[in-house]
């Protein structure tokens, strides 16, 4: 099987075949995109949280991952947070709103994104 990537390819090499390459000091670490629960901004870095409780601090900002994952099941719910819809356990409207993920982590959601998420839920329920 030939895996050539053309210059005009719509997908970049960082997000290919259901995997994403995270830059490391010595190279790259490949992970299944479906294993990412959420990504939290940490200055010019991002902290990636996986379903198996692994975490990875990477030297790319959140905007980079938002652009890579926008056409998948990810949504930026807050200026500092990108989530995978597949791992949402609960949407809490109290105290400004938050999303509770399957690992129990409570993540803040902006008012506008909460309204967008509620509309999306209503459309698909």
UniProtKB/TrEMBL annotation:
Keyword presence, DNA-binding: yes
GO molecular function, one term: DNA binding
Keywords: DNA-binding
InterPro entries linked to this entry: LytR-like, LytTR_DNA-bd_dom
Superkingdom field: Bacteria
Residue ranges annotated for the HTH LytTR-type domain, each copy included: 22-123
Annotated coiled-coil segments of the chain: none
Protein name: LytTr DNA-binding domain-containing protein
């Amino acid at each position: 099987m030939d895996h050539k990537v053309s210059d005009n390819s719509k997908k970049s090499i960082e997000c290919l075949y259901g995997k994403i390459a995270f830059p490391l000091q010595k190279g790259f670490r490949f992970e299944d995109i479906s294993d990412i629960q959420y990504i939290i901004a940490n200055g010019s870095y991002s902290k990636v949280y996986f379903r198996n409780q692994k975490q990875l601090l990477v030297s790319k900002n959140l905007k980079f991952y938002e652009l890579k994952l926008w056409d998948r099941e990810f949504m930026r719910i807050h200026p500092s947070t990108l989530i995978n819809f597949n791992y949402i356990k609960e949407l809490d409207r109290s105290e400004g709103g938050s999303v509770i993920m399957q690992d129990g982590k409570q993540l803040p959601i902006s008012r506008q994104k909460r309204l967008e998420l509620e509309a999306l839920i209503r459309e698909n329920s």
